[in-house]
Amino acid sequence: MNAMSRPSTDVSKELPSRETIDPAVLEQASLWMARLWSDDATDDQRDACLQWRQAAPEHERAWQQLQAIDGRLGTLPSHAARSELFEVSSPLSRRHLVQWGGVALLAGGLGFGLPRTPQWQRQFADYATGIGEMRDVTLSDGTQLHLDTDTAINISFDADQRRIHLVRGGVLITTAKTTDARVFSVLTREGLSYPLGTRFSVQQQAGSTHVAVYEGRVALERRGSDERTTLDAGQQAEMSASRVMPPEPLDPTEIARFQGRLVAESMRVIEVVEVLARYRHGVVRCAPEVANRRVSGVFSLQDTDRALASLADALSLEVVYRTPLWVTVKSRRDDKS
């Protein structure tokens, strides 16, 4: 099952011809992309990749060919879509993706783990959202899902169970009100969440699963353990590979992110920037001298350029756009305090 539709178009006529690009350049582009798709990519690597792309037109053409694998550039928010770096036509079908198999296998064989990258996970998920995108989905049993930015999920419903596999990102779930004898669960890397007539959110983080309960109850069960920790409405908890942390009171601003807003209450600038970075393509950096300054306010996650401008106005900061995809928040030149 794959809920993402594919346009019926001849992609080969719209994308630059890969035969005109030196195979060695394609190889370099695939290695750069595999590095940047990994979760531990550094700013230095992103900067070096940008310099490589700008070094020759053929480098950029090779990058554009591989970038089309993502298949979601048509839904980019305006702040990213206006960049020439992302002007790619239609998404590649799985048939076209297979034609790139040699490049993908090359990158994977060199240890960069291409199938574990965000683009790869989103491409083959049952439901997915790109960076800066949110999506509502209603499942066959009536369960309602709200997918956060950069999220990928797979659905497995059969005669005995209803399971959502959260591959990456976050999802707000409102379970169906109708009676269904099949067990409902959400699978993440760390374990399972079993809701009991509820509304709750699950987020797959780097080394843990975050669960927040707004209505009803949710039982958490780590992989390899039979013990369950139950969260009541108004509670949240972190589940790692080794333990489930004690439940804590729910952060009332948590659900606002699924509504496209970041509610900051005495939040550090670096924390605000890190959240906004999840909702836009490219790199958002924060200068050390402003990282620990604190701000309160409501910022849009659907228009991160406006959010950055609001942050700058609130604290008299400066937002410097090196390119639309490379942004730095820093002190104003006339205010180095």
UniProtKB/TrEMBL annotation:
Any Pfam family hit: DUF4880
Record has Transmembrane as a keyword: yes
Gene3D superfamilies: 2.60.120.1440
Region Disordered, residue ranges: 224-250
Keyword annotations: Membrane, Transmembrane
Domain named FecR N-terminal: residues: 27-68
Protein known as: Fe(2+)-dicitrate sensor, transmembrane component
